[in-house]
Design goal:
The protein is of the alpha/beta class. The protein contains 12 helices and 4 strands; from the N terminus they run βαααβαβαααβααααα. Helices cover about 45% and strands about 10% of the residues.
Length: about 240
Amino acid sequence: MKSLLVNAGFGWSATTPLFKTLIQNKYCKKFHRDNGGYGKECHLLKGILDGKNTIEEYIDYHNSIEGERVYDFSNSNADLPSDFIDTIAPILHKHFEVKVTMIVRDPVRRFYSNCVHNYRGGWSRSNKPIPLPYFHSQTNHTSYVQTYKSYSKHFPTYVIVMENLWKNPEKELPLLSSFLDYPITKLFPNVYHDGIFHKGLEDQWTDDIPLSSEDYSVARKEMSWIYDEWEKEFDNMPW
């Protein structure tokens, strides 16, 4: 039975560096698009929810990938409804040894990166600054805790705090390795950590306009419920 690693978000929390870390350490093999694969993100679970795919297609796709460890790093996994996960979980258990990772980042900074990306119209990078009114006009309903609860009641689930992993890999990598039951010894670079526009991380290159401390404070007040919810669930505050 293959091991299926489902990453349940969160976009703009360094999901790409995490994915490339696993590939670099040969935890799994990337199934390239030119070989009939979906690359990092297949979005097949979202497709099942929307009636575009079937669970059988999801199972067949991952069984077609070489190796005993396969992955689903679709950022849309973070937004799947809890009742949908309740439905598919027993089916996945019959075919895979499922583990779930979640990588999270300071909610305000993650949301700001998302807004910069959306305002600039996708992957293009320009010198056009993001207007703060756009940032403040957006509403963020992302609940780290709700996604965690939806998955953890069915599968072993490991939460990675992005800032901690890249600041203190000597401590964090052994913990991740223990969860995966596989040695992860090297970290791929992360633009959100060092601010360098690394090749292969173009999806992070839009994150080049600093967020002022004043605007951070305003946004943090508006999104305080996300921080409060986290602290209540995990009894810590990494941000």
